[in-house]
Specification:
This protein has 20 helices and 19 strands. With 552 residues, it is of the alpha/beta class. The protein is globular.
Amino acid sequence: MGFHISKINGLISANATRQSIVAQIANDLRFKELGIYYLPETADNDNELSHRIDGIIASLSADDTIVLQYPTSNGKRFEEMLMNKMQAYRNLRVIIMVNQMQPNQLEESVRFLNRASAIILPSKEMHHSLVEYGLIVNRVVIRTIEDYPTDSLVTDHVNTKEIHSIDCSKKPSHLITALSWGGFGKVWSDDTMNQPLELGICISAGIPVVVKEHMCIAKFVKENGIGIVASDWEDAQRQVQETDDEKYRKYCQNVRDLQPVCAGGCFTKQDLLQAMTLSRQKQSAVDFKVKDIDDSLDYILKHHCSVARFGDGEMDLIRGRSITYQEYSAQLGEDLKHILQQKSNENCLICVSDVFNNRERYNSNCRHFWELNLQKDLNFYREICTAPWYGSTFISRPYIDLEDKSKSAGYFAKLKQIWEGRDILIVEGATSRSGCGNDLFANAKSIARIIGPSRNAYDMKDRIMEAITQYGKEKLILLMLGPAAKVLAYQLSQKGYWAIDLGHIDSEYEWFKMGAYEKVKLSNKHTAEHNTDENIEFVSDPEYENQILVKL
């Protein structure tokens, strides 16, 4: 069982520089270099290209692992043939390490990346974009920073208040020497997805940096205190000039803490080892990706998209089974199936339960429920969920089922950002009373309500839709109407309304506020999972009554 890493030769480019650095670091882990000589894509015919690739991979054997640095700079035809030949080896694992990729290359690269055993990506931002284009590989390592190996560790620097441009084409020893006097290194780009090699260079040189706030490494720079994060170049220059000697000394001390790590290639070694471990793990139970709660909420906040959420109840209805709050009908089943098979986009986010991987995130009751559910329905999910990715249904269930509840406050804070300062129209069942007795919607500009039936709301879908279109113009529409909410949210999104299916959110918020560890029944309104709605003691609430526009 051998380990190999590819490297492009015969080419002077940023990609070639990065590949050379990674290959040098991998050599310390006893990887064997697999050299790929650069040739223009049209240089060989198919037969000649096949023979050339046979020579490149001659050292590979069954059960080996190869880290393929991507792109190879030799074109799509070369890469596809190379992958086909490598995957002909028994149990050979191919880890694709993306060094740099531009936005216009993402969509065409996804099919190739989906053939990998694991993927190393330069940023979380790139991962998000690739998932939107259909990436289904879930064994993904996100790089921390790009290392820059050197034996010259300069530690004394002067606050010259200069900002140095970095010439990555210089020899490492010359580059480190040129930066050794002090000042700041310029790590500046409009690129939000790719790692800048300049950051590793500056850390290895021991000097703090100036970075643009939207770059993917800005968070790392800020959290480690190794430089200035600026909104624009004028702001960057101003902050540099205002940096006194004491503050500069602290920057340099923080950089020195990372300097031997970066100069020794430790971040890259860690990424390679993690990817090798992941490549041996079993792939996801399904072929689609589910965004987690955080990423789903970020997507909604960014795009102001409508949301239709599918849980186990909706899957039962698609299969022809009635559930507690909704009798099955063929039309409802077809409507739900049609929506579930649509690709999410900036207009409407389709969500499913995030339970196919990492169920250790949930408490024992939740894990047990979904393990039983997937034993009987996993193949149905595989058959019915044909989109490449989904959001998380649990955006409205962000508390009670989680094993670690420490992030729930952050989830609710993001939820509240969605309706902050907005006129909202709540469309809910007669027993729901969402937000009554708590501050869930306190930051909304105004609240209006349409009250529908507590059961079988889909049977009144047309009347509910008519009321929403009458009263919901210019409003954010929040739907708490069981399976009917999924159909309404999707159809409203097609009509230009912003409608979010958010059922159960009120119960979750009440449990969150009381610090509950089990699903406590609420005395004054509907409680999620307490499906009979018995013994509810409705409290007189003039504010709630005044918000109601129509009762159906």
